[in-house]
Structures are given as C-alpha cells and as structure tokens.
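User: Please predict the structure of the protein below. I'd like the answer in structure-token form so I can feed it into my own downstream comparison script.

Assistant: Understood. Taking the following sequence of 137 residues as input:
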Amino acid sequence: MRTAQSPLGLLWRFGLRATGLALLANLLLYGLARLLGVPFEVSPPGQGTQEVGWANVALLTVLPMLLGLALYAPLRQRTPKAFPLFQGLALLVFLLLAFAPFAATEEGSTRLALSLLHIPPVAGFLWTLHRVEKALE
C-alpha cells in the first residue's frame, strides 16, 4: 500500500528525476554535435568570443530547472492555480531563449545545436508539473 506523499515531496521527486534526464539528454546532444563537428564558439552581443563547453551545458540545464522548481514549490503550496501560470511561464521562457543562439553566432549548425539544447529542460520541467498535478488529483 502506498502512502500519500506531500505535493512538495512529489515535486522534488519528479523534478529531480526530470532534471537528471534533461541533463543526460543535453550532454548526449552536445556530445553528438561535437562528434559531428559543430563548432561551439559564440560571441554574445557585447562580449568576446567564448567556447560553450560541457560545464556550460550542464549548468545551464540544471540550474534553471532547479530554480523553476524552487519558485514553483511555495506558490503551489498556496494555490493550485500555480500550475497553469508556470506552464505559461515555462513556454514563454523557452520561446524567448530559443532564439538567443541566433544573436550569439552566425554558424547555422551551432545555432541549431544550441537551440535544441533548450528543449530537454523545458520538456522536463513541464513533465514534472504535469506529473505532480496528476498525482494530486
């Protein structure tokens, strides 16, 4: 017999699982792109040329997901309306950031690879929110 778990416990259980899977997916995508010869040198506006490395990919996958979970948790404890709000915010952030690689490089393969790296964290975050809400029904 399963015991009922708190919304916060469910959020972190599913959230950490999704974060790990998003990290794995992004590291695999990055590694595949590297094997295919995609250059990961970028020049964000107002900055010099930088190399996007494994650590960048890992940090920029994990930190936003954990931040999103940390922001969602207290709001979800106050109101179930947090779910549609955060769904919309996650999609908005995805749409805004998915185009950032286009400002950082002229190289098409780099733009594509960096844009694809935005998908696993957003998908994982949305999956987490969905799973938590379904479990609480």
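That's the full token string. The helical segments are 7-35, 54-78, 82-97, 100-104, 108-116, 119-136.
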